[in-house]
Amino acid sequence: DAGVIQSPRHEVTEMGQEVTLRCKPISGHDYLFWYRQTMMRGLELLIYFNNNVPIDDSGMPEDRFSAKMPNASFSTLKIQPSEPRDSAVYFCASSHRGHHYGYTFGSGTRLTVV
Amino acid sequence: AQSVTQPDIHITVSEGASLELRCNYSYGATPYLFWYVQSPGQGLQLLLKYFSGDTLVQGIKGFEAEFKRSQSSFNLRKPSVHWSDAAEYFCAVGPTGFQKLVFGTGTRLLVSP
After folding, report:
1. Each residue's pLDDT expressed in tens, for chain A with a length of 114 residues
2. Mutate to test the interface with A, among B30, B88, B99, B108 (most CBs of A within 10 A)
3. How much helix, strand and coil, in percent to the nearest 5, is found in chain A?
């Protein structure tokens, strides 16, 4: 298995632009998580899905952030408009119900908003 | 509410010396506990997990952790550290092994020659 695949690995964008981060979970995994990592706040859960349905989006910072999971093999996290304080590493992770092995994380997308 | 405390932000250990990273958790029921490692520029990799059975669990790369319910702790240990162990280590707790996990703030391990 190729693991959890995130794209792009790095993104540099100007303030005000729309940014879309992508994630392909491990095949057969039915949970998908989006985390944000910063020096100041550590790892924060933004949102997670079960069977493509958003279960908890209480960590989404504000309306500028949105996430979708149109099918079991793809999810997006969109920021519109982006701001410098959104600069962080965004991780996607997936897991499978019944397998109590924790998550498998992707390699992350490093977002820089200038 | 669930929470995880990793009291040490940085730890420096000499190569070959033993290591213990501390993790304390707050959780209302029997927790599922995890340790992850993150190398620079990489995602988090699972080191080991505990959810039942023997309270001393073995993981990859020679790491082990001991669950102590009375102390609400799940400390990570390694008898002899290698330079390649330099990384950031995260403790996490959750209701199962596949649902929402709460992570600690991490401990950065530095290994001196």
Report:
1. 679 999 999 999 999 999 999 999 999 999 999 999 998 888 999 999 999 999 999 999 889 999 999 999 999 999 999 999 999 999 999 998 877 778 899 999 999 999
2. B99
3. 5, 55, 45
Interface contact flag, A100 B98, Cβ < 8 Å = yes
Closest chain B C-alpha to A15 CA, distance in angstroms: 24
- Contact list in A for residue B41 (CB cut-off 8 A) is 107
Instruction: Identify any residues that bridge with B77 across adjacent strands, giving them in sequence order.
Output: B20, B64
In sequence order, which residues have a C-beta less than 8 Å from that of residue B87 and are 6 or more positions away? B37, B38, B39, B40, B108, B109
CB contact under 8 A, B101 and A103: yes
Do residues B37 and B87 touch, judged by C-beta distance below 8 A?
Answer: yes
- Look at the block and give the residue holding tokens 């391990």: B109
Q: Cβ separation of A102 and B49 shorter than 8 Å?
A: yes
Peptide bond into A8 cis (omega under 30): yes
